[in-house]
Specification:
about 375 residues, alpha+beta, Ribosomal Protein S5, domain 2, Alpha-Beta Plaits, 2 domains, four-stranded antiparallel beta sheet, 11 helices, globular, binds adenosine-5'-diphosphate, binds magnesium ion
Length: about 375
Amino acid sequence: MTPAAASAAVRAGFRRVHGSDPEGVWAAPGRVNLIGEHTDYNDGFALPMALPQAAVLAARRREDGLLRLHSAQGDGRTTELRVAGLAPGGTPGWTRYPAGVVWALRERGLPVGGADLHLDSSVPTGAGLSSSAALECAVAVAYNDVYGLGLSRPELARVAQYAENAYAGVPCGVMDQMASVCCTGGHALHLDSRSLEVRQVPLDLTGHGLRLLVLDTRVKHDLADGAYAALRAGCERAAGLLGLPALRDLAGAELPATLVRLPADLVPLVRHVVTENARVERAVERLAAGEPEALGPLLTEGHASLRDDYRVSCPETDLAVEAAVAAGALGARMTGGGFGGSVIALVPAGDAASVARAVTDAFAAAGFAAPAVLEAVPSPGARRIG
Ligand code: ADP
Ligand code: MG
């Protein structure tokens, strides 16, 4: 769907639900991360790109302090909340993400009030493609405009992350939100999660005869279930033992001498984070050299590190990677936090259909539900579309 068509559809939805015209329509995309997984909360590096799939949000400011929320993917009901009464833990279900953004803006001392919001998102939920960040960032950019806040893109990402951490109770890093607000079409985003500096890295897959498949295993992850928090705590403990602000500050060359000083349970965590940061740098170098096909082996190497060291893979993501590579993918890895979700596979354009079929057949043979197949095309970040 074109942005104009998406905007018109969501405007019409807004009119049906809220009985008036919205002030505007905003879109914020989901993302895949090419490489650099579980590095953001270690102040490290990542290389995400925005998807064409996006959360589209129509909004109209209200002066009576009410926040009225409706999602085309929800249960048909409109949730009405009093902005002055928003408190972490006090908002049910999906509405905690948009309510959390409004709360986070007010926590920063910004004079924001209510709004009517209508959401229609094409980002699959719980698939590791960041539907939650897309939703948060759509609300953040819409509020930035209708309340004239003048926040920068990294500031909007921080607000959205704070909403997810402190309001929705999910201890995610900042990569998903930075990707959703800062990506540009035709580029991957080289992100420094400490400084929030970004660099747009040209990513011309088509021009090199390549496609990037997204294989959604349909295994739902739940980042709030404690495993993610435990990994994050392990990394922080390791950095503390090493006297470092974060694992980002450990250079690859120091790794062998450092690992022998750590308790055995922390060794694989540290090894993943340090080697993964190095893989991001290598990936950026290859892209700068005009060799996107060289990402392939880095993806597969990164997956092995997530599977064997970080242990966030699962049988479905492992099988998708294995089957894709066996069928001719140049490389593949799980993307997102893990414990399910999606796998990306870099494939020669002519092999895309056969790789997708091979993964689907392997899933059927293993008795897994059929994966959903999408294509990742580097797309624009959050913006007003109507
Ligand atoms: P991911 O971000 O990988 O898709 P999360 O578990 O972080 O997975 O976020 C998914 C949650 O985000 C959903 O369970 C729901 O609460 C919320 N969400 C995302 N998109 C929508 C939508 N279109 N309508 C309502 N809720 C949504
Ligand atoms: Mg999420």
